[in-house]
Amino acid sequence: MTRPRDPATPRLEELDMLGELIERAGPLVRHRVLAEVEDRGARWPVRALELGPERDDTPLLIIVGGVHGLERIGSQVALAFLSALLGRLLWDSATEHLLERARLWILPVLNPVGMARGTRSNGRGVDLMRNAPGAAPVSLAPGSPPLGGAPGGPVTWLVGGQRLSPWLPWYRGPAGGPMEPEAAALVDWVERGVARAPVAIALDVHSGFGTSDRLWFPWAHTRQPMPHLAELRALVGLLDASQPHHVYRVEPQAHAYTIQGDLWDHIYARHLAAARPGLFLPLTLEMGSWLWVKKNPRQLFSRLGSFNPIQPHRVRRILRRHAALIDFLHRAVASRESWSALSDERRRLLTDEAYLAWYAR
Q1: CA geometry: angle at 341 spanning 335 and 347, to 5°?
Q2: What's the pTM value of the predicted model, to 2 decimals?
């Protein structure tokens, strides 16, 4: 039986699903309200769940969905994985042991107001994934060359973020203003989780670009390579070996377009600047929604149809399709020694492979 609903909290299907999963999990999860966002007299919670040990020196996988309100399928993928995980914990000792070795944090709906309104942006018209301060050069050690390019480097026009008007898409927010509460809550939560983790991976689930499913990695604001190419290449090698028929096209996000204000660029750059010893790899799953439209062109007449599968059988297929990826990433952080502890020679070889695979063109 569900708890009585606060009349000041409006209905949203994904938040209802999350509330039911919280009650179903009971003491297995820790539930946090990271922020509350007011809109039209209603209060919307930004809720996060944490599973596994409370020790902050434990490896960590973070799953985030619902950054853009139109992309509801991302939240549903996160919720479906959580539901399946809770089901396995009832009988599967291997899953229980995995959670003891690696924490799992899930934030399924970062932008509840945008999701309720059916908009990409939040209630103030801000695209949360363009809302971070401009990325600054980062040095790993005094005197070393900056990583990540200049903060004012060229970005893709309009889609890369604009400050002309909140009535236009991809609005970053006013220059010099504070971050939106949803974006600030995500940054604080992720930084708390990765601060002492020996290895942490974040997977942010989106939809809406192209006809294939992509795994994007930093940087988003420059075409220069990210610092941890060797570790990333080792992780992708594990994925190729353990799921040889996977559907993902792995590439730098900047191959598609460059932007300013990317939240994951911001968190990653801050992690590097703090010179923390642990490895942090932020990834973005961009599900290719154009393929769904190609198979069912009538979706173009629906506001959500450009970003979400509409046919029930296709929704179920998408929810199944990406569960294996999330499970793989959880096992990868738990088994970090097998791929992230690199000798100097191995690091050089993997870096060369990464350049040939992703930057030779």
Answers
A1: 130
A2: 0.93
